[in-house]
Design brief:
Aminopeptidase, 29% helix
């Protein structure tokens, strides 16, 4: 299993994954649902790659890096690292968002992928804890976070706000 940064070599598999992911699934938003491969290749992929080192973005924009989880030649999940927090992210989505293909869930990919993502995030984010948010009805993702050292820092009506100490990512 490996985590690969978004790239042009894997464009077709990334496009298949990204466009099949619903516009909002368990709180992970996807503005690229259903786009054509040509649009993905010419406009969206370069845009997503540029988010790591953004230029001419609004003040509220936070750099974000996309990674894909692969098991052999099969792309099984997506993990996003937001490089630092704004007040909105601190009280919302946090540093990491992720998803696993529906037909690959329940096999440990979320736990393994989050562990690998935390190892990378430890060297990117300045905060002492990694912030995550999970829907209260998404018990599978809650378990993934807990297996990776998370604790519940708070909640609202629909979400738990989870924290993982950076040293727990070792």
């Amino acid at each position: 299993m490996e985590l690969r940064k978004i790239n042009t070599k894997d464009a077709y598999a990334q496009w298949e994954y990204t466009t099949a992911l619903p516009a909002d699934e368990n709180g992970l938003t996807n503005q690229y649902h259903g786009v054509t491969f040509d649009e993905y290749l010419t406009r969206i992929l370069p845009e997503m790659i540029s988010y790591e080192h953004p230029v001419d973005m609004p003040d509220w924009f936070v750099p974000e890096t996309y990674f894909y989880l692969w098991d052999g030649e099969c792309l099984v999940g997506e993990f996003r690292i937001r490089h630092y927090l704004t007040d909105t992210l601190r009280n919302g989505a946090g540093h990491i968002g992720y998803s696993i293909r529906k037909d690959m869930r329940g096999r440990g990919y979320g736990t393994a992928g989050l562990k690998m993502t935390l190892e990378i995030a430890r060297n990117i984010i300045p905060e002492e804890e990694v912030y995550l948010r999970v829907n209260k009805d998404n018990t599978a993702s809650q378990k993934v976070m807990l297996k990776n050292g998370a604790w519940t820092a708070g909640e609202d009506e629909d979400h738990y706000f989870m924290r993982i100490p950076k040293q727990a990512a070792d």
